[in-house]
Design goal:
2 copies of one chain form a homodimer. The first copy, chain A, is mainly beta. Helices cover 0% and strands 58% of the residues of chain A. Chain A is built from no helices and 10 strands. Chain A has a 6-stranded antiparallel β-sheet with strand order 2-3-4-10-5-8, with no helix packed on it. The first copy, chain A, has a 3-stranded antiparallel β-sheet with strand order 7-6-9, with no helix packed on it. The model of chain A has no long low-confidence stretch (mean pLDDT 95).
Chain lengths: 113, 113
C-alpha cells in the first residue's frame, strides 16, 4: 500500500498556467490506470486537444468550463466529467481561485519518462 | 462528454454505515476503469477484504485510517491511497464528520448489475 499527500508530490508545468502531479502511475506499479492531479491558476487552462483514450475527472476545488465540440459546459467542486476517447476537450479556469481536479487515464495515456 | 454532479447520483448502501455511488462505469461507456464515490458515516467503515484488482483512492473530506496487514495508516483530505491487487484493506472513519473518498477500480472490479 502507498499513502501520499498530494501536495508533497513534485509538480511539473502543464498547459496554460497549470501544474500536473502524477499521484500513482507506472512508476508506482499501477497496473491499469493513472491518477493525476492538476492545478490550473486563475485565467489558465489545460491543453486543448484530443487523444485515443478517455478521461475521468472530478473537480476538487474551483470552477470553470469544459470546452468541447458541443459547446461549453460549466463545472464546480463536486462535478464529475467523462471525456470519451477522441473527444476534443479543454478545461478552463473561469473562477477567481485556483482550479484543482483529479484526472484519471488508462496506463497507455501516461507513460513515465 | 458527460457532466454529472456527484451528489445527484443515486447511492446504495455499502460496508458498515457507508454509501456508494457509481459515477462513471460500464453503463456510461467507461472503457477501462470505473469512478466510484463513497460516503462513510461517523463510526462506519468500508468492507474489510481483498481482491485481485487495485484501488486508487483520493480522500475528499474527513479523516480515518487505512487498515492493512502492515498496520494502520492515517489519512485525511488530500491523502491518496494505492492498494495493490490482493492487499487486504479497509477504510475506517475515525473522525467526527462524514468521510468522503473517490475510489477507482478497473472495469473488472465493478460490473454493472
Amino acid at each position: 500500500m502507498l499513502v501520499r499527500d498530494i501536495d508533497q508530490i513534485p509538480a511539473v508545468p502543464y498547459g496554460q498556467s497549470a501544474l500536473k502531479r502524477i499521484v500513482f502511475g507506472e512508476s508506482e506499479g499501477a497496473p491499469t490506470f493513472v491518477m493525476r492531479v492538476f492545478d490550473v491558476m486563475k485565467g489558465g487552462a489545460s491543453s486543448h486537444h484530443s487523444h485515443d483514450f478517455e478521461h475521468e475527472v472530478l473537480i476538487l476545488k474551483g470552477e470553470g468550463v469544459l470546452k468541447g465540440d458541443d459547446g461549453d459546459k460549466p463545472f464546480k467542486e463536486g462535478t464529475a466529467l467523462f471525456i470519451a476517447p477522441n473527444e476534443r476537450h479543454q478545461l478552463v479556469n473561469t473562477g477567481e481561485d485556483t482550479l484543482r481536479f483529479v484526472c484519471m487515464v488508462p496506463l497507455s495515456g501516461e507513460v513515465s519518462p
